[in-house]
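Lecture 7 notes: from sequence to structure.
We start with the chain below.
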Amino acid sequence: VGPVGDFGWSYMHDIGRRVVEELFKDWLETTYVESVSEAQLSEVIDNLVSQGYNVIFTTSFEFMDKTIEAGKRYPNVMFFHCSGYKRRANVGTYFADLYQVYYLNGLMAGALTKTGKIGYVAAFTTPEVVRHINAFAIGAKEVGEQLGKNITVYVIQIGAWYAPDKAKRAAETLIERYGVDVIAFTEDSTAIIEYAQKLYEETGKQVYVFSHYSPGYVYGPDVVVSGQLVRWEVLYADILAKIKAGIYTPYNLDNVDYWYLLNTGAVDLGCHIYDNGTVMLVNPKFKPMLEQVKVKDKLTGETVSAYELVMRRYREMKESFMLTPLQETATTHVYENIAKISINYGTKENPLPKDYYIAGIFDPFTGPLTGYSIEPGKYGEKVTIPEGVRLSHDDLWTMQWFVDGVVFLSGGG
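Predicted structure tokens for the same chain:
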């Protein structure tokens, strides 16, 4: 992963660390080690433990196995691994996922594109990135195809989480060779935003961009439409407070898995945070354009502006029901994002079941959806999600297929 100054993944994790350090300053001492490779991780952990640190967060998917190994070496130290799925008594997992926000970004992309050709620069094709690409494509197709646009999302994988030069070259390729006029990305720098802003200033060419993980508006005020924001401090504060209270110990983290979405406050739509803490959900420059585009809300059948559709979906997902991680540990089954339960309003002899909705009625990954597998040995096999079927946590966590309309160009096609 990149340095804390990458203005992306590591930057926002470090902001979270700084917030909880101030919040819990009476009893909490923190430090960080940046730009750590997988090969260096064990040595870094050994060094931190030798200094007396007893809670260690590892913030890259590639660190999963070595975090588990460290948990075995140091059974009295608590570890929390970000984006992984392996746990043990003293190793929990946590993640703030952005797929819902990528869907919202996709709705805007579908409204704004003139060519129907949209680009995505991906660090890798891990399940996390794949579900973000898919959510973005689902949103773009939902709006774009209503407007008669043949939406295609071209994906270039650059093979690095932090590689500004590679990210810029990938953006250039997408624009010059494939004619895209919208770009989203998973790469932890501002390179793509700055490139698109410079292109606009020097040539007048408009390429719409969605910033990634941290506020990107200031780097491209003429090109950044919106983006995804993450507030890791929400997770860090919850975890550390429960450690302080004795709720989490080195002996009971086996089932502690944070999966924080829009409804937790750890994830948000937006591209800028004002000095007073409020968020610019959408760049004001592009709001009138989105308001002019009229589409149908597939849930209600109403005709609304693209902007109103984005805000509706934003509210629906942000206000949906959730179980907290502590509540999840009290369940006897793996918790899924259940949309409804059935309540019997009659008697045992004469049941009168009715559905009672406990979660938002909308999720981007609800069928019908079709696509193709990118799993080794199954590449190209058709994937079908029937109408009304809503993908579970595990389905999303292991996603290795692209929705139709996504064209994978690998390293540049």
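Points to note: Residues 127-144 form the longest helix (18 residues). Confidence is low (pLDDT under 50) at residues 330-336.
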